Amino acid sequence: MRATKLIPYLALLAATVSLPAFAAAAAQSSLPADPPATASKAAVPAARIQAPPALHLRLGLDSVACGISLPAGGPPKRGKAGLIIWLHGGMRSQNREKGFEAHRGWLDYIPPRRYYVCSPSAYAGAEWPTPQGLAHIEFLIGYMLKNYPIDPGDVNMVGVSDGCLGVVSYSLQGSRPLRHRVLISSAPQLVLPMESLPGQARFSQGTWDFVQGGKDRLFPSDQVFPYFSQFRALYPNAQVHAFPEGEHDFSWYAEHAPDLLRTFFEESRSPGKGPATEKNAAAAKPAPPPGLDQKPAQTRK
């Protein structure tokens, strides 16, 4: 998307027919007991030398490319780890390999031994909100739960740009509840209009963290922040992290708000507890963004 105003994804919404039908067919395809021995691997930066290399797998009916990173030190010897699904942006390109490396930068912002992190791919004809795109997510989650010691009650999702549409769509239609959701540079109204926000019972499960910039070149602040205000009024488990100087790309937040990014999956955070953001917001919030009320978010319970 290069337009400076929101353009409804009418084609995507029209294509969203029956996710269960596509997902059911995918579920019947056999899952390998272990990752293929020929899975290619990506080099690990020196700062993360303890973490195993990323696995490059092809899963599901259309052999979607996925990247998987194990916890540092390998699978936990006791208990189970959590799972983070990372949904990349740019979902309408012809590149079918975007999921492989998409999540690697996120590893710098999570406890290294607590999570499996993986990312499926979306592309033209299989965008995140479509049955095909959602089936990519479903299949990967099912694969991870079957093959690794993962707590099914600790499934989380992070989206950037278009990937946020997948987070919202999965929250509406996916087969599993999500514990934490992080949406960076989003416009949820592209898949769920503001008038449809009330009464979404599944939105009350887990937490929502919206990270948004006032200088986002794709999603204008005067359109997205009023939506966030309504969302937060309806669902007290949501929190908005506003950066008036913030831009669209994830790299801006990696540079200007790394402490905030690390709070989302910190070990002390419970399923209903939002991260404290005063330190990060103070450095980047000289004035409130338009349309976002400045009452503090309600304490999560």
If you had to describe this structure to a student in words, what would you say it looks like?
With 301 residues, the protein is of the alpha/beta class. Helices cover 28% and strands 18% of the residues. Strands 1-2-3-5-4-6-7-8-9 form a nine-stranded mixed beta sheet. Helix 2 packs parallel to helix 4 (131-147). Residues 1-49, 276-288 and 294-301 have low confidence and may be disordered.
Task: Provide a brief overview of the structure.
The chain is of the alpha/beta class and 301 residues long. It has helices at 10-15, 19-28, 98-102, 131-147, 162-173, 221-234, 250-256, 258-263, 278-284, and strands spanning 40-41, 55-59, 64-69, 81-87, 115-119, 150-160, 180-184, 207-213, 238-243.
